């Protein structure tokens, strides 16, 4: 079975969502189904059908999260000695060589990726170019608009 990398924060977020779904949302939906059943004829009961549909979506999400957590290899980058090398979970400051524009990214698992929050998927082109490189190295990233060179300014284990 393949294990997928995940940061401690990513695993914690999934566990919180799972706790919310199981502890709060699931009982609410069960209650809504019970109340809708009391209204009578289930064939034409829109509240019942809506609650059952929501229950199906919540149960599917619960199974999805449980599967992801079961197949996750949680990596605590803060516990790994700092070497200046870009590895999974590190936070990297990179500077565009041409424009000198600096950007900060954390390299995370596919499920955690959110570019707006500065979290890059480990399988993204930029992350693949950065992994294994060290501070002050220059990497070339192939983008739809052409090749872009970045210098690795700083690597942090946070």
TrEMBL record:
Function in brief: Necessary for efficient RNA polymerase transcription elongation past template-encoded arresting sites. The arresting sites in DNA have the property of trapping a certain fraction of elongating RNA polymerases that pass through, resulting in locked ternary complexes. Cleavage of the nascent transcript by cleavage factors such as GreA or GreB allows the resumption of elongation from the new 3'terminus. GreA releases sequences of 2 to 3 nucleotides.
Protein name: Transcription elongation factor GreA
Transmembrane segments: none
Residues covered by the Transcription elongation factor GreA/GreB C-terminal domain: 83-156
Keyword Coiled coil assigned: no
PROSITE patterns linked to this entry: GREAB_1
Family: Belongs to the GreA/GreB family.
Coiled coil: none
HAMAP family tied to this protein: GreA_GreB
InterPro entries linked to this entry: GreA/GreB_C_sf, TF_GreA/GreB_CS, Tscrpt_elong_fac_GreA, Tscrpt_elong_fac_GreA/B, Tscrpt_elong_fac_GreA/B_C, Tscrpt_elong_fac_GreA/B_fam, Tscrpt_elong_fac_GreA/B_N, Tscrpt_elong_fac_GreA/B_N_sf
Key words of the record: DNA-binding, Elongation factor, Protein biosynthesis, Transcription, Transcription regulation
UniProt organism field: Pseudomonas matsuisoli
Domain Transcription elongation factor GreA/GreB N-terminal: 5-74
GO biological process assignments: DNA-templated transcription elongation; regulation of DNA-templated transcription elongation
């Amino acid at each position: 079975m393949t294990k997928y990398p995940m940061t401690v924060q990513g695993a914690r977020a999934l566990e919180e969502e799972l706790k919310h779904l199981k502890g709060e949302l699931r009982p609410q939906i069960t209650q809504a189904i019970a109340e809708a059943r009391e209204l009578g004829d289930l064939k034409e009961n829109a509240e019942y059908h809506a609650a059952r549909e929501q229950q199906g979506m919540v149960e599917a999400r619960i199974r999805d999260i449980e599967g992801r957590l079961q197949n996750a290899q949680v990596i605590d980058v803060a516990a790994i000695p700092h070497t200046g090398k870009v590895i999974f979970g590190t936070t990297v400051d990179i500077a565009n060589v041409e424009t000198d524009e600096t950007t900060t990214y954390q390299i995370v698992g596919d499920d955690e990726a959110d570019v707006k929050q500065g979290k890059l998927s480990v399988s993204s082109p930029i992350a693949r170019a950065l992994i294994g490189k060290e501070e002050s190295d220059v990497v070339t990233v192939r983008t739809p608009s052409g090749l872009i060179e970045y210098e690795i300014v700083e690597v942090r284990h946070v």
